[in-house]
């Protein structure tokens, strides 16, 4: 089918579909048949072709992998988190792919988390789960649930060995180390314990992989006796379950993209009927947090960027305002502790934390030193505490864990992710790098923020190579993050930029609304505007710029390839949603119906159909001079199915055969790619080597 110099040619088997009077021929629909030997043979041939075409990069890949490994402290230990009488933590061991999850009893007088030198095990530790042992004999391993019961006796955990995000749920007795006979296959993320730890709630999915049922399981009984607590029949909605920090209530969260409903069960009465906090109303979103005599309600009812209210925990009803809506200040979540509330928010494109003392004292915002950063609460399982833990990072500051005294306002750095010396033997110094915030002007006059990082002294004359990253969907914000692997690019003179385009949530709910449904094209034109601004401002040149995005960001990559192929020297599309119209037209596919409130419903609405058809990458492949494209996908991905990039690459080769297109399929992974950390480093080295090859 292929040689080192000839790309695989997918056979054409035209499949016809008609919607709203429009007839479309899909020559490569056959690739969606996962169990067809011809499909597997085609993907295998594509992998062989990609390996042959990138064989000259083998040395560079090994070099990049070794740089990441060398800079990473492979044997390491997380900052232990206190819950009742134990410190909980995880650690990694040099040469092992997965984490080891542990706890150690709190000792008399011990008020600060114990941290060992060089990540060694803590004296007296108890190993709860060893991911390396669980993963033995499997090419893929992922942990779904990891939930210790309130009394510390049971551990509910779930495992996935295929990457399809269907987990087998088990319960371990932490006093004996025995794994109970209780076993529930095909569960999803999310568990919650009853107050007495006799009952475990969990979630399962329907045939379209939509989380639609919450179940109640009694410890020590077979799963065949489990009871459905809530079944969500509206296909736009999905469900989740969790225990409040106070351990007083089990919350059943029911959400669509724009509407929500929360039901509660007293944790002390797990067989009780779920009570509704507020019935769902189309377009109204709210989230619930328990605090003493009240439920806190974070909502957007008449509040575009959300407001905070509360209602009685005994008899939920009217909402009493607590924090009024303030346009431009997006309230994202609230965490309740006995004497304080902490609100996570976003202002001017930056994350923040606001503290509200209970019973006296003014609210205040924490302050941070860098102009560009990302901050958010970490695990804080204890309700009765005056201290919270948060994580902080920037494009130059490694992930940092702080404990913050809510009374004294003292901030203590517990740990900063170690970055070991690079190939030159010099210790990592953030002052060797510089970060910037720039702004591009979109076609409609909107200012779009861009975050950049580069090695100090990188020229601004257009000669520097650059990578621009984007996402722009689901109100997900691409806040600044630190990456050890990225240092290998920066040290080679590459500028890394993040385009904070509409469709994300960086500038509040309006920013999201202006990049979805019939305004989706703003996402793509914003990204192109950012790319062109980098050239105009002297950061780089169009023939020295590679674009990169994943999932919905992969759709972005395909769209801008069609929209402005001249703007990029290369494009990396990971697990890319490039055949969006075909997928959104098929309600039987995973997650399709739940996506209609994000993209529109092309099945019933001809305007949505025409609009989506005008931008979806697969539909709009044309005989253009495309930049080099690397598409990376996973065979067992249930979020963006593997055949979307497979079809896209096949059509690119057929319609624009002069282009350079590569497809790499992980044959035993899911949406997140390889599961082991060394395998993930190798994947990143593969991608970065390809990028550097495009930029030299």
The coarse overall form would be globular
β-sheet strand percentage: 25-35%
Helix content: 10-25%
The separation of the N and C termini measures 31 Å
Helix-strand category: alpha+beta
Strand order within the widest sheet? Answer: 31-32-34-33-35-36-37-38
- Outline the biggest β-sheet: 8 strands, mixed
User: Overall mean pLDDT score?
Assistant: 96
* Tally of contiguous helical segments: 12
Family: Belongs to the peptidase S9A family.
Keywords: Hydrolase, Protease, Serine protease
GO molecular function, one term: serine-type endopeptidase activity
Pfam families: Peptidase_S9, Peptidase_S9_N
Short summary of the structure?
The chain is 19% helix and 33% strand.
Which helices and strands occur, and which strands form pairs?
Layout lengths: L14 E5 L2 E5 L10 H17 L4 H14 L4 E2 L3 E3 L2 E7 L7 E6 L20 E5 H5 L6 E7 L5 E7 L6 E7 L5 E15 L5 E7 L5 E8 L8 E5 L6 E6 L5 E7 L4 E7 L8 E2 L9 E6 L2 E6 L7 E6 L7 E4 L5 E8 L3 E8 L2 E8 L6 E2 L8 E4 L9 E7 L6 E6 L5 E6 L16 E9 L5 E9 L10 E4 L14 H7 L4 E5 L9 H5 L7 H16 L8 E6 L1 H12 L6 E5 L5 H5 L7 H8 L6 H10 L12 E7 L8 H13 L5 E6 L10 H18 L2
Parallel strand pairs: 33-34, 33-35, 35-36, 36-37, 37-38
Antiparallel strand pairs: 1-2, 3-5, 4-5, 5-6, 6-7, 8-9, 9-10, 10-11, 11-12, 12-13, 13-14, 15-16, 16-17, 17-18, 19-20, 20-21, 21-22, 23-24, 24-25, 25-26, 27-28, 28-29, 29-30, 31-32, 32-34
Family: Belongs to the peptidase S9A family.
Protein name: S9 family peptidase
Keywords: Hydrolase, Protease, Serine protease
């Amino acid at each position: 089918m292929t040689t080192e110099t000839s790309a695989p040619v997918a056979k054409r088997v035209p499949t016809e579909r008609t919607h709203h009077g429009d007839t479309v021929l899909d020559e490569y629909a056959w690739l969606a048949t996962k169990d067809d030997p011809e499909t597997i043979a085609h993907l295998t041939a594509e992998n062989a072709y990609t390996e042959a075409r990138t064989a000259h990069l083998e040395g560079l890949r090994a070099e990049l992998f070794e740089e990441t490994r060398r800079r990473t402290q492979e044997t390491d230990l997380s900052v232990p988190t206190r819950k009742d009488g134990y410190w909980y933590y995880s650690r990694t061991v040099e040469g092992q792919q997965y984490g080891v999850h542990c706890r150690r009893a709190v000792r008399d007088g011990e008020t600060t988390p114990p941290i060992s030198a060089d990540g060694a095990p803590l004296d007296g530790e108890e190993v709860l789960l060893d991911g390396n042992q669980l993963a033995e004999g499997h090419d893929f391993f992922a942990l779904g649930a990891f939930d210790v019961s309130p009394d510390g006796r049971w551990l509910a955990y779930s495992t996935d060995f295929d990457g399809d995000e269907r987990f087998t749920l088990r319960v371990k007795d932490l006093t004996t180390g025995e794994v109970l006979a209780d076993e529930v296959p095909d569960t999803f993320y999310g568990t919650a314990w009853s107050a007495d730890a006799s009952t475990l709630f969990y979630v399962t999915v329907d045939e379209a992989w939509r989380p639609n049922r919450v179940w109640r399981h009694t410890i020590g009984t077979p799963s065949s006796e489990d009871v459905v607590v809530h079944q969500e029949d509206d296909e736009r909605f999905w469900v989740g379950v969790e225990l409040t920090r106070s351990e007083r209530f089990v919350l059943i969260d029911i959400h669509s993209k724009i509407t929500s409903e929360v039901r509660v069960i007293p944790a002390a009465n797990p067989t009780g009927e779920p009570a509704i906090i507020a019935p769902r109303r189309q377009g109204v979103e709210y989230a619930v947090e328990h605090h003493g005599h009240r439920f806190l309600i974070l909502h957007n009812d008449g509040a575009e960027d959300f407001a905070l209210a509360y209602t009685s925990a005994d008899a939920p009803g009217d909402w009493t305002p607590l924090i009024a809506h303030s346009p431009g200040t997006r309230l994202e979540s609230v965490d309740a502790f006995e004497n304080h509330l902490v609100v996570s928010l976003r202002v001017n494109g930056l994350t923040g934390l606001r503290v509200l003392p209970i019973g006296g004292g003014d609210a205040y915002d924490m302050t941070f030193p860098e102009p560009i950063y990302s901050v958010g609460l970490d695990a804080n399982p204890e309700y009765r505490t005056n201290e919270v833990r948060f994580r902080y990072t920037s494009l130059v500051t490694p992930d940092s864990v702080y404990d913050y005294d809510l009374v004294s306002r003292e901030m203590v750095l517990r740990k900063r992710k170690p970055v070991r010396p690079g190939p030159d033997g010099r210790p990592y110094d953030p002052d060797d790098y510089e970060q910037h915030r720039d702004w591009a002007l979109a076609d409609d006059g909107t200012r779009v923020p861009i975050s950049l990082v580069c090695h100090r002294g990188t020229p601004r004359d257009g000669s520097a190579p650059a990578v621009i990253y984007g996402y722009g969907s689901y109100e997900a914000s691409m806040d600044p993050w630190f990456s050890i692997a990225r240092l290998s690019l920066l040290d080679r003179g590459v500028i890394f930029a993040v385009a904070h385009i509409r469709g994300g949530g960086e500038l509040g709910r309006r920013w999201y609304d202006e990049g979805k449904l019939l305004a989706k094209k703003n996402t793509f034109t914003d990204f192109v505007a950012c790319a062109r601004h980098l050239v105009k401002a002297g950061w780089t040149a169009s023939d020295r710029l590679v674009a990169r995005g994943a999932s919905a960001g992969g759709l972005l990559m395909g769209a801008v390839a069609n929209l402005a192929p001249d703007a990029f020297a290369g494009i990396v599309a990971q697990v890319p949603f490039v055949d969006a119209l075909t997928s959104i037209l098929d309600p039987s596919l995973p997650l399709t119906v739940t996506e209609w409130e994000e993209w529109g419903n092309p099945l019933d609405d001809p305007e949505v159909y025409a609009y989506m058809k005008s931008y979806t990458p697969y539909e709009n492949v044309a005989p253009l001079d495309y930049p080099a494209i690397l598409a990376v996908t996973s065979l067992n991905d249930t979020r963006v199915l593997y055949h979307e990039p497979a079809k896209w690459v096949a059509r690119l080769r057929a319609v624009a055969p002069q282009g350079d297109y590569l497809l790499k399929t992980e044959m035993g992974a899911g949406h997140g790619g390889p599961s082991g950390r060394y395998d993930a480093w190798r994947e990143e080295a593969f991608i970065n080597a390809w990028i550097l090859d495009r930029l030299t």
